[in-house]
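Researcher: Good morning. I'm working through a list of sequences from a screen, and I'd like to move beyond sequence-only analysis. For each chain I'm collecting a predicted structure so we can compare shapes side by side. This is the next one on the list. No need for commentary yet; just the structure.
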Amino acid sequence: MKVHALIFWQTSLGDIANNIYGLKLFYKYSFKNNSFKSKESEIAFLTKQYHIVEKGLALPNPRLGFGKEKINLLLDKSKKYEEKYGEDKLVISIKNCLSEYIEFNKNNGINIKGPYFDSILNFIGCSKQQNQGGTISIDKSELIKVMSLPFENFVKSRFSIRDFSNENVDIETIKKAVYIAKHAPSVCNRQSWKAHVYTKEKQILSLLKIQGGNNGFTKSINKLIVVTTNIKAFTTLENNQLFIDGGLFSMNLVLALHSQGLGACCLNTCFPFTSEKKVKQIGSIKENERLIMMIGIGNLKNSYKVAISKKKDLNEIININ
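Model: Good morning. Structure tokens for this chain:
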């Protein structure tokens, strides 16, 4: 019986059944739009929503009064969340982020009177804690010192950067980063990944336009990498493995770029297959490769802002059995 079951899972029907199972679980537990099935989903949505504001504040030239529609939605959902669960760390992070948003607009001459800004100010109240939501400023000179420090300090010093200098990125530096990144683990050492590096401005802008999540810093991106994995390297029951392997390589690459003193920003490729086809066409990527992510690259300014991107506490992540 077990032999027959094993044979079934090695057939196309078994693979289809396995994929359907994965989809059923995804649609059972994932949230859609603003409809939540759990507190975890609410937290994920609100974290995503306020990080949009953080990213906006970390741009080289944020648009005054940006994100009104998204902030109104954030306020509505945050108030309902606070009513149910109280002012926890997430709510404090959101309030601090919005507080910086208010200060940014106020300091740039925007009249913060009126229903929109009043609703933000009423929600913020007097809650304020440092380094929990919003942005922080980083000096390049301090970052260079960190490069020689222990690994923990090095990892903690990496941020997604959206404000690059105008200096051209040396392609040899990118090659060195890819060389370091290739030492990532992969299933059965198949090393299915590929790093497509783009250097021409027109091609980069075309690819970024499809990605769509780089508004406000598009033209400051000097080089672009599209990470892919080769479907041909995987077999039955490994449909998710190609994304795992690609993710492992991508993380190694982001850290490697950081080690070489370059700024980088991860850009997701969560879009329809029609857009994936366009990326492949513009980027000369083979059909048998799946997109993992794009990575925007640039040289560091002497001083720049980054989103705080508050991390969860250890006890929210680790589960010792």
